[in-house]
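Section 5.1 Outputs to date
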Amino acid sequence: MSKIAFLLADQFEDSEMQVPYDEVRKAGHEAIIIGLKQGESLTGKNGKATYTTDKAISEVQAADYDAVVIPGGSSPENLRLNSDILTFVTEANAEKKPIAAICHGPQILASADLLKGRTITAYPPLKDDMINAGAEFRDHEAVVDENFITSRTPQDEPAFVREILRAL
């Protein structure tokens, strides 16, 4: 089964972490929570979910994972300026590993300069930011472009999970 890196910081969108995390584990995959520090307790912005990071981004390599999931909320904003996070997603992309980002998750892909020529979706108010980063924006529940899987909001989670599991 696959080993999936969940990139997470405080104030994530609760269900956008919880639903994909639970579903990939239910399907038999290994889910590893990677944050800025190991052993850090992270709480969702709605206070409905709390997770503890398994690893610090500074101690992992993309080569050791089969896919990456980036939940939304404020978490991506808290991660996107970290050079280790950007290196991790850049290396995963270079290896054509599935990278699934929902809601604000594509902000990390934009900061890593990975969106030029790609077709994605994101939280609708980010449309201009995604276009300015070089992406073609689609307002669909899930958009798959090569190894990128993107979705807009918690309402899109069933399609998001379906595409993640299909890619694995």
